[in-house]
Amino acid sequence: MKQQVNGYVQEPMAAPQTEIEQEAVVQEDHQQINSTAHVGTSEAQEFSLAIKPKGPPLFKLSALYKSRLKTCIFLHFLLFFAMLAKLSEDILDRMDIFILELEELFIPKPMPFEYLWTGSIIFAIIGLRALSRNRLSSLNSYAAGTVVLGICPLLFAAIWFYSDVAEYAEKKQEAEIEKWQGIPVGLWWYGFITVAVQVHLYSLFFAFKLIKIWRVKLKRA
Fold this sequence. Notes:
The protein is about 75% helix and about 5% strand. It has 8 helices and 4 strands. A two-stranded antiparallel ribbon has the order 1-2. A hairpin with a 2-residue loop joins strand 3 (about 180) and strand 4. The protein is elongated. It is a multi-pass membrane protein.
């Protein structure tokens, strides 16, 4: 209550705070400080995310696609050696070299598009050189050569043997078509085409990715 002393109104003095009340006030102050610091941290994180570049750097993407393209070219070489083994009898015959074991295999005579596809290995070598030296022009040549000598002969082979495969699917063993080791030659070819086309398509995909990245690097240089 207010007291009047010598004409002045005197306010009663506040009661001293207990230790429990003081601790409660201190804890409340700490909570306010922590909440303020948390807001500052979240704002800093949002700012760092805003300035952080999206996606991996170009050199990492380039290294990744180069590694995958090398794998595809390696598979291309394996397919090349398989085709070379198939053409070996005809090549040796042209050189007047006769090997009895090969003659007894009765390997079907090669078609012109088989030699065309075999020539695609030249562009595979160009592709490897392009990857080792980071040459954009050589990589463009590799992509073009893969389409012309890699994919086009395979598409022609698929069309050429389509009638044989369709007849075999309809008549099975009664089909009058060329066979090797009891299996229609068309089926052998379709198996090869399935694998080779996938290798070429993946090769082109990775090559075009690299071409795009290298063009960006040239613009920045």
